[in-house]
Write a structure and sequence with these properties.
This protein is α/β, with parallel strands linked by helices and 253 residues long. The protein has a single domain, classed as Rossmann fold (3-Layer(aba) Sandwich). It has a seven-stranded parallel beta sheet with strand order 3-2-1-4-5-6-7, sandwiched between helices. Helix 1 packs across helix 9, helix 3 runs parallel beside helix 4 and helix 4 packs parallel to helix 6.
């Protein structure tokens, strides 16, 4: 897939994240895409973008709070005037593990749905018009393997990620006439900042050793899949959920 994304512009939400976010950005840039790093943390977004440019890639960054739709629209209006989006990676999200559903307040529930689902819906709605105009596009939604088997102590998180799978299938059907492929990537537990804060390193190490492949995937493993789904090579794949999980989750289709 070397240079398969030259002349394409990719936007990654939550792209300043130290694990998957930055990994997705770096991988897409390696394949030649101009990468727009979107994150509410200016220092994180700027650092990822600067690193891409230092490595002779093409990048810029924008900062906004994805829960504020008006703020998002204003930021996207500015950046898309110069760089219409061909590839959208909806990566931004929050974790909600280790919380019994009896303890989930309305505020916690609403925040989870707003960050993980509502923001993704309206960001995609804002950017899809250019993909239609070009009769080409790739939308990759980051979900979770929790959607495949359920998870105790994370029902509101699992519900938000399950909603992503429904949107993925619906958008895939609706946007197919414009050759826009829409897919979901459902990673398993990774040693990310959010996951470590939720379940701790001891739990992750135990899960890694018990996985059929002997280890859990890392962020780069997930980014390799994202890059493939963003590429022209994935033109026959749409409406699918693919889970890089080292065999930890094996379910029927």
């Amino acid at each position: 897939m070397n240079n398969s994304l030259i002349n394409k512009t990719a936007l990654v939400t939550g792209g300043g994240g130290p694990a998957m976010g930055s990994s997705h950005c770096n991988k897409l840039a390696e394949l030649g895409a101009h990468v727009i790093v979107l994150d509410k943390r200016k220092d994180k977004a700027q650092a990822v973008s600067n690193k891409i440019r230092e490595d002779n890639g093409s990048s810029e960054y924008i900062t906004c709070d994805i829960t504020n739709i008006n703020e998002v629209n204003e930021a996207l209006d500015i950046v898309t005037n110069n760089s219409p989006i061909d590839i959208l990676v909806n990566h931004a999200g929050i974790s909600g593990m280790s919380l019994p559903f009896e303890k989930v307040t309305e505020k916690i529930y609403d925040t989870m749905m707003t960050v993980n689902l509502k923001s993704m819906f309206f960001i995609t709605q804002k950017l899809v018009s250019n993909m239609k105009k070009n009769n080409w596009g790739r939308i990759i939604n980051i979900a979770s393997d929790f959607t495949m088997y359920g998870s105790p102590l994370a029902s509101h998180y699992t519900a938000s990620k399950s909603g992503i799978l429904g949107l993925t299938k619906s958008w895939a059907r609706e946007l197919a006439p414009w050759k826009i492929c829409v897919n979901a990537v459902a990673p398993t537990l990774l040693k990310s900042e959010l996951t470590l804060a939720s379940v701790g390193e001891e739990f992750l190490n135990k899960e890694s050793k018990s996985a059929p492949m002997g280890s859990l995937p890392n962020a780069n493993d997930v980014s390799e899949l994202v890059a493939f789904l963003a590429s022209p090579s994935s033109k026959a794949i749409t409406g699918q959920t693919i889970s890089p999980n080292g065999g930890r989750t094996i379910v029927g289709i």
